[in-house]
Amino acid sequence: MIQKIFIKISARNQIKGTIVSIQEGVVNGIVTVDIGNGKEITSTISMNSIQELGLEKRKEAYAVIKAAAVMIGIED
Q1: Which of 4, 13, 21, 62 has the fewest CB atoms in 10 Å of its CB?
Q2: Is residue 17 over pLDDT 70?
Q3: What's the CA gap between 70 and 49, in Å, rounded?
Q4: What pTM value is reported for the model?
Q5: Each residue of 43-59: b (16+ CB within 10 Å) or e?
Q6: Can you tell me the distance from the alpha carbon of 53 to that of 4, in angstroms, rounded to the nearest whole number?
Q7: Contact of 54 with 38, CB cutoff 8 Å
């Protein structure tokens, strides 16, 4: 049995949305979250995490973004 613990985290980019799809793989899965206004965020996470979090379509979830670096590029 997994004990639920509620924590605050330092990442400021926390975007609430609804899971619209989960593409399951052997080791990892791709979770797509609808964040509104026709925008979606996808994340590749372990299948173990998907199962432990009980992720499924139509469930509310947060996309939490914590980047060490953000790069900008242009076509050459």
Answers
A1: 4
A2: yes
A3: 25
A4: 0.80
A5: eeeeeeebeeeebeeee
A6: 10
A7: no
Question: Residue 76's pLDDT is what?
Answer: 85
Question: DSSP string covering 25-43, please?
Answer: -SSEEEEEEEEETTEEEEE
Mean of per-residue pLDDT scores for the chain:
90
Q: Residue 42 and residue 58: Cα distance in Å, rounded?
A: 15
Question: What are the residues facing 19 on neighbouring strands?
Answer: 33
For residue 14, give every residue at least 6 positions away whose Cβ sits within 8 Å of its Cβ, in sequence order, or none: 62, 63, 64, 65
In the chain the domains, ranked by start, together with CATH numbers, are 1-76 (2.40.50.100)
